[in-house]
Amino acid sequence: MERDDHEAAHSGPPLADMAPLVRRAREFAAARQARSVTRDEPLAPAELTRRFGFAATGRGKPEVVLSEDVFVELGHPSEASLSTILATFDPGLVQHGRVTLVGPDLPSMPRGQRPSFAQVLILAVDHNDLPDPFSLENAQYLMHRLPGYMVRSVPGRLWVRVSDKGRAAGLDLFAVGSALISAFTSGFSGVKKAEVLFVTSFRDDVEALSEIAVEAAILSGKHKKLTLGLDGSVECTELNCDSCEEKPVCDSLRDVVVKRREERRKKK
Questions:
Q1: Are 144 and 72 in contact (CB under 8 A)?
Q2: Torsion-angle region of 226 (φ positive above 0: left; ψ -120 to 50: alpha; else: beta)
Q3: pLDDT, position 185
Q4: How far apart are CA 33 and CA 31, in angstroms?
Q5: Which residue, among 132, 41, 123, has the nearest Cα to 84 in the 3D structure?
Q6: 210-219 and 19-31 helices, crossing angle to 10°
Q7: Whole-model pTM?
């Protein structure tokens, strides 16, 4: 298994089964089927290397996409952005190799566009060979592995710069999804299946995944003082909110819950 230099220092509790979150992600995609495209056959690693210079192993050559060389920016800080990994022990919930895109792909975007962006990775993992959650998180950035595709990461967000050269080479999100599937299934012995969901449609679509992303972060152990109750409520072990480093997460979750409740009331 490919190990990150910081894995030992940041190893957390073992992954929990996120099967309910996977089902909710499926419901999200099904509700937007009219404006989505799905492909079940990813590009092979050799084809990704031939066409785009994908580093099938390791990290490739460091690359910086300067602002003047940017074709489009996905998940720019001025827009909604989200990334999450949903791991389940039930392989039947994962369609290996599937890449689903809700919204337009890179070829149909005008140069300079900054759409909101979500990336959801759905993994079937072996509960006897659990990968480290923090190593999984690092792998989703494809650090220096896909030329023309540079990720600037902030916890829970992805800010992606796609270069003019990458676009000229034919890079699209199905190629990116194929690269992610290869990176996870070849880099982690415990990852048996992988599929990817991208969203580039609307801010509201990206924000609709926020609850799933927050719950996934808690279940993966990123927020050590937060736990999920049996009823799905978030519980906290910290008594003093003012001095707690998890307060921004709680505040963010509260905003998400309040917004969703308001949307439900409007629909009634």
A1: no
A2: beta
A3: 96
A4: 6
A5: 123
A6: 160
A7: 0.81
